[in-house]
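seq:
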Amino acid sequence: MDEADFIPLSALQHYAFCPRQCALIHLEQVWEENAHTAEGRILHETAHSGDSRLRDGVRIVTDLPLKSAVLGVSGRADVVEFHREGAVWRPFPVEYKKGAPKGHAEADAMQVCAQAICLEEMLGVSLQEAALYYGAQRRRRQVALDAALRSKTVAIARAVHELFTCGQTPPPKRRPHCKSCSLVEVCMPDLLEGSGKAKQAGRYLQSLWNPAEETT
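struct:
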């Protein structure tokens, strides 16, 4: 795949969390700050200092550029630790997240799995584990890079490429985690599930997303 067609690595997590959120951010360039995103931004700014240091025999690199032709993605890693194993320095990606692991923990796991796949391809190594660091808990959650997670990550990457190719934002749909999304006011997930005039407007908008369907 031509690097010009690579998608942002972060789009995988956005899509796994919500395909519509992914489209709003990456296709429509929509972004709204709230307490959740502000907290996450501050945490990532700390992680992306660009520093490289040696601590307790572990080389710690932040803001490391990543890319994978297999997934067709590029981006940057929050933190990659390099652990010495004989003459080899084996990478160990750590993705920083604000808050605590909730219903979207699998989306976070796919993101760090994608980072691991990038490192494997770039450095010619094989990785078994990565980690997620959640700010609210101030501790790591180990992520096993097993076949099931890798398969889901590859599938998500393909789905995002298809989304970018078609260029069509999916219709809104109310999900349990909508309340934590900074784009909820822009997305309007209740529009298609409301009543009265709101429901009529919802049916009209639904017909725009699905032209074959007629409004009533």
